[in-house]
Amino acid sequence: MMRRQEYLRPLFDERPDRVGRDRLEILTALIGGPSFDPIYRPDIIEIPRGHAIYRWECVVAGCERTRTGGSDLCSEHQRQWADDREHGVGKAAYVAAAQGLERHVGAEESICRICPERPAAHSDLRLCQRHLSRWAMRKKEGDDSDTFDAWVSGEQPCPGYGPCDAMVCPNLADSPLGLCSWHGSRYRRDARPGGAAMPDSWWQRYEKFGRTVPIEYGDQAEFRRWCAAVPAHPWPGQINLRGLRPLVRAEIQWGLFVHTRRARPSRWDLGWIRSLVTTCRTLEVNSLIDFEFGAGGSAAFTGAIAKEILHELRLVYFTP
Q: Where are the beta strands (DSSP E) in the chain?
């Protein structure tokens, strides 16, 4: 601890009432400047495919899937490579011979082609759950009088359920419960804190007649705490900074940008960056200056990213 304090001594100030505000003003000005890459300005950073520094897709040519577990291969190619490696195949040879894979269905949110306020439950047909059910029923009845396009043109849009109630989530809710598909699944895996539930036959009893669907709670406050604490969906190429304190959010944005300007930047896997963000969000960190390396079970590579950003912050905070 003493070594860390010595290293960060210039970052500790006897006027905490001003120092945080002043540092945020400095970073805000730099982030808003013309030399700053606008990719890193939003709360939800979208790293484009093929990014030179933060590449997140599988290295196999033509593969549309994301890397996994700190590897530069997707999970399927990682599995194949592990099998081939046992038979003496080198990685370069494997990568050169491997075939690219299409992305997983549902790898990103899309909007229903009929309902602009509802997410699609099927990415190929681009239909919400309600219209997907209606189309399945039409096919089951054997009515082939209309093509799919003709059927779509005759359908009416349904009102949406608003944004997902998970604080960090930018997606649309897919039911009256107020959660997107991913956070709805996460809520069930977490044993439904607060016991939020929709009544039985809610569509037939309420939505079918345009009535608001009442949500029942065992403990609504507990449900809201879960919504505030649950992490973001790790969408491909996305770094979600929502829910962070303003200063630490700006510090991470600045650190991500400056890292790309280094002559020989070290590897920062998006999963490692997300781990740092999640730790700062969970511990309600005001600034990376307050970040205790190893806190919250953070791994060594997460601490290494924080240390590099802290080095860059020293240059910003204490140089003319």
A: 44-46, 238-240
